[in-house]
Amino acid sequence: MNVFLIHAHPEPKSLNGSLKDLAVETLTGLGHAVQVSDLYAMNWKAVADADDFPNRAHPDHLNYAYESKHAFLGGTQRDDIAAEQAKLLWADAVILQFPLWWYSMPAIMKGWFERVYAYGFAYGVGEHAGERYGDRFGEGNLLGRRALVSMTVGGRESHYTPRGVNGALDDVLWPIQHGMLFYPGMAVLEPFVVYQANRITPEQWADIADRYRARLRGLFTDAPIPFRRQNGGHYDGRQVLKDGLGGGETGTRIHLVQPGDPPEYPLPPR
């Protein structure tokens, strides 16, 4: 299988760098092919701006979404953007490796998504009418791929619980896991998280490495997070969860399929 690993940390000798190297070693040892985009090492351009479009449809006024669609459909994207899209299409699984900075990913990785996820490639896909409103949240051009967030956190695990001061980790990661990965169709696995990352001892690292190897061995077999598909029948024509669903949960967790829910509609043929 093919695995695409996107890595964002400025220090190669960091814990994130070690996790990235461990993933490559483990996955290749299991017989998988691996490509890595080390964003800092690549000096990735993180800012989405007019320089992304050498052949503008409307030179006098920048509409980034429109220009990204024009470039994607017209074959005039910058080479760095097109190369990352090709890696996504090549992949059977995608791994994000990053430290949690200010409740999100580093800006360089956020910029990767803003530039690589072109209109027509990752969003704006499919018919937008009635209940469908596009092929998104469980459908889209990246359907059939798996995704895993592997990240380090400075705080304690207890800080990221429903009653913890930072809020539940599911909610902190909602924009990434549901919004960036599930939106274009990827099946998202439970995240791999290392807490109190700046206090890891050699003995703790040995345990972390063992746990991460186990997660990587299950990359293609572990059950994904049961996010509801937008077009699976659980949402109405306004894309609002139908009455009677989600009653056993609160917050973002209402958007997880629960025992006793009606089955979702089959995916349409591609």
TrEMBL record:
Annotated Flavodoxin-like fold domain residues: 1-215
Stretches for region Disordered: 248-270
Main enzyme class: oxidoreductase
Record field: compositional bias (Pro residues): 260-270
Source species, domain of life: Bacteria
Family that this chain belongs to: Belongs to the NAD(P)H dehydrogenase (quinone) family.
Protein name in the entry: NAD(P)H dehydrogenase (Quinone)
